[in-house]
């Protein structure tokens, strides 16, 4: 009952769980990290703060895909590209903030450009010395790519597996492009050696805790935005398109416009997740464009339960938490486990863990209702 209420923020119970989780990540964990001594049993270490911040970014990425796949029926296998683009936008800003503190002491060019004998800062790097400009680009760049790709695909009525293949080809092509030094994004090494963000040293516990808080706030806002969309009339149209697109199109609804809007919003959320992820891990490189990463996001959503919003967030956090544990015990087994997990969920839990929880709750209520009716019949007899 508690989890079902939280899935849709139904009633005071769902909102109470939502606010309680917000207090934990925004208040309790930073306090236990910064104000409780390392010798205290309640102390939360810096490593755990960083890990949780990363997991919240993954949760926002899974939420973004669930909005598109779970409610609109369009499976994108290229959301890793939007995540990486948001990360690169933030990474460019962090590189510009280094200024003359780099290895080569050049106030205008990042170290990798000096190393590659670049003389002039490329035009597309201008403006990233300002945080507000970088923040806008975090939304605009992924949204623009999704808008162009989505318009071409949805206008041509490309759906199903064909749309998935196109998005996967897109992320693969972008990975190849960003590997090239001529692109001006650091090539294979990417962007790294970040120093600070908005004047705050990235290596201090206070900044790490602040990034955790920012990730939690972004995830909460993203959840509320997605919930507002799916609870509106637009959300009903999305579900109708997912279940019977041809019928919705026949009734005169703007199917292309609805899918395009959802695709763009989903891409923007993924870009925000990438932008928050980069300062916490300290690097962004073309490996983030890996097709395997985008497929793994789909696994998170499937495990958590697509079409539930909260389920994919829990799936992303749970799967990555288990990956961290298994990586320290048997790192070679992770890909085998991930593949087996996806097959098992597809065959035995098509609605994911969220669907399993709700089904168990429904069976329990049905059993309790039947027991009550039997007792009433016995008493009346």
Protein model, in words:
- The longest helix is centred in the C-terminal third of the chain and has 29 residues, at 352-380.
- 73% of the residues lie in helices and 2% in strands.
- The protein has 381 residues and is mostly helical.
- The mean pLDDT is 90.
- The protein has one domain (2-366).
- The protein is built from 14 helices and 4 strands.
- It has a two-stranded antiparallel ribbon.
Short synopsis of the structure:
The protein has 14 helices and 4 strands. The chain has 381 residues and is mainly alpha-helical. The chain is globular, with a radius of gyration of 23 Å.
Characteristic key phrases:
single chain; 381 residues; mainly alpha; two-stranded antiparallel sheet; 2% strand
The topology string of helices and strands comes to HHHHHHHEEEHHHEHHHH
Main sheet makeup: 2 strands, antiparallel
Distance between the termini: 33 Å
Report the count of strand segments: 4
| Helical stretch tally | 14
List the helices and strands and how they pair.
Blueprint: H1 2-7, H2 11-34, H3 46-72, H4 79-98, H5 111-115, H6 131-155, H7 160-179, E1 191-192, E2 196-197, E3 200-201, H8 205-231, H9 233-250, H10 255-281, E4 283-284, H11 291-304, H12 310-329, H13 334-348, H14 352-380
Antiparallel strand pairs: 1-4, 2-3
Helix pairs in contact: 2-8, 3-8, 3-9, 3-10, 3-11, 3-12, 4-6, 4-10, 6-10, 8-9, 8-10, 11-12, 11-13, 11-14
């Amino acid at each position: 009952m508690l989890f079902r209420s939280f899935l849709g923020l139904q009633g005071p119970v769902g909102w109470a769980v939502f606010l309680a989780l917000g207090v934990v990540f925004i208040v309790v964990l930073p306090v236990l990290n910064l104000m409780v001594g390392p010798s205290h049993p309640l102390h939360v270490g810096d490593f755990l703060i960083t890990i949780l911040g990363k997991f919240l970014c993954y949760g926002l990425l899974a939420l973004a895909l669930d909005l598109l796949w779970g409610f609109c029926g369009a499976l994108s296998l290229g959301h890793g590209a939007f995540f990486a683009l948001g990360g690169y936008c933030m990474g460019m800003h962090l590189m510009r903030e280094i200024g003359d503190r780099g290895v080569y002491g050049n106030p205008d060019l990042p170290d990798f450009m000096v190393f590659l004998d670049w003389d002039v800062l490329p035009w597309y790097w201008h403006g990233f010395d300002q945080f507000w400009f970088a923040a806008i680009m975090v939304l605009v760049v992924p949204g623009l790519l999704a808008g162009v790709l989505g318009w071409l695909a949805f206008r041509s009525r490309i759906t199903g597996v064909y749309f998935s293949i196109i998005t996967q080809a897109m992320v693969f092509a972008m990975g190849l492009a960003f590997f090239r030094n001529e692109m001006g994004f650091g090539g294979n090494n990417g962007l790294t050696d970040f120093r600070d963000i908005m004047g705050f040293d990235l290596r201090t516990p206070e900044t790490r805790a602040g990034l955790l808080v920012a990730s939690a706030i972004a995830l909460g806002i993203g959840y509320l935005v997605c919930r507002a969309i799916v609870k509106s009339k637009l959300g009903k149209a999305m579900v109708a398109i997912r279940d019977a697109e041809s019928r919705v199109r026949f009734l005169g609804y703007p199917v292309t416009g609805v899918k395009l809007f959802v695709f763009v919003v989903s891409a923007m959320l993924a870009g925000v997740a990438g932008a928050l992820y980069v300062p916490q891990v300290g690097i962004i490189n073309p490996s983030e464009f890996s097709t395997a990463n985008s497929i793994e996001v789909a696994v998170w959503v499937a495990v958590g339960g697509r079409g539930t919003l909260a389920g994919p967030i829990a799936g992303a956090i749970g799967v990555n938490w288990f990956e961290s544990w298994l990586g320290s015990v048997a790192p070679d087994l992770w890909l085998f486990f991930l593949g087996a997990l996806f097959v098992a969920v597809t065959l035995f839990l098509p609605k994911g863990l969220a669907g399993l929880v709700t089904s168990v709750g429904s069976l329990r209520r049905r059993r309790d209702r039947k027991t009550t009716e039997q007792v009433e019949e016995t008493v009346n007899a």
